[in-house]
Amino acid sequence: MLTMIAERLKQGRKVILLHGNADPDALGCGYAIAKAFPDADICAPGGLDKISKVIAMKLNLKVLDRMDMTEYDQVVVVDTSSPDQLGEFSSVPANAIIIDHHARSDRWGDRTYYCDDKKKSCAEIVYQLLRVAGIGIERDVGLALLAGMLTDSGHFRYSNAGLLRSFADLMEEAGLEIDEVTSVTDLEPDVSERISQLKGAQRIRFDRVGDRIVAISVGSAYESSVCKGMLAIGADVAFVGSQRDQSFRLSARARPEMVRMGFHLGKVLENIGVETSNDGGGHGGAAGLVGVGDVEAILNICMQRAMDFLREKKRSRESLSP
Q: Hey, is 282 helix, strand or coil?
């Protein structure tokens, strides 16, 4: 299918859509496709996250926040698990191309949909796409894709052998060193982010099963950063949500040991999203949920699901004990 996608991308004017608060993986994929298959714009209707803004500046890349879809021959969606993550552009055309690495979704209907959920980053798929198309990797494209691989694998904490091989091959092909990649991904938190982390720590509620701890907290910004802070101070699973009028936004993180135990945050939040008519999903160790409702109630559901998982694991272990 990648060969067919490459042929279609060689034709017409294209717009590449990124999910809300687009991360470096989404931005890197968009940038690589736009450079490899010219006459393409990149649109992030929900804006870029902090690291992506730095990368866009480094690449001198202009990212649109609005556009007229009728002006384009081809719409491409990258690193996006469901149409709802595209905000006002969720009604993508029937001939759109979707390239993703999250859990497969039936929300894309009959559109051309290439999804490899074994990949830790969408950047690996786009790197493969460029190889299939016989397109060489320039340094700037390599930097964008490597930043996507590095951040989506949690700086290799959630990596696998496939990602490490692709990362090494891409470094060599683009002529880049690892410090050139980390120079755009490893940012010191500013004072606003640090205050959010401290407030998140003040509002923590937690419970435990054996030596595993599940923690939740309410914040107003930097939810994913607060989650990482909660893992750093002892939580095994962290959920942080914020309320904006009737809407909420929630991020979640889990330690790699939890993922190896079979806990998959993306599936947990996807199921909660379906049950509450909201939109959730992501990876085993990092996921998000957005929608309408009371964030405290949603956080309580998240904690309950994580605790149920741990209790079931404990019962299984005890049943196997002599």
A: strand
Mean pLDDT per 10-residue interval, the chain, length 322 residues:
95 94 95 96 92 93 93 96 86 94 87 94 97 95 97 90 97 96 88 91 95 94 91 96 93 93 93 91 88 95 97 87 69
Q: What angle do CA 224, 226, 227 make, to 5 degrees?
A: 65
Supply angle C-alpha 101, 32, 18, rounded to 5.
Answer: 55
CB of 26 closer than 8 Å to CB of 33: no
Q: Tell me which long-range contacts 111-115 makes (C-beta under 8 A, separation of at least 24).
A: 112/1, 112/4, 112/5, 112/8, 114/1, 114/2, 114/5
Residue 29 in tokens? 């994929």
pTM: 0.80
The Cα-based distances of 311 to 206, 209, 303, 304, 308 in angstroms read: 15, 7, 12, 10, 5
- Beta bridge partners of residue 78, listed in sequence order: 99
Cα 207 from chain centroid (whole Å): 27
Cα-based distances in Å from 43 to 92, 243, 289: 13, 26, 22
Please count the other Cβ atoms lying within 10 Å of the Cβ belonging to residue 172. Answer: 11
* Integer Cα distance of 49 and 225 in angstroms: 11
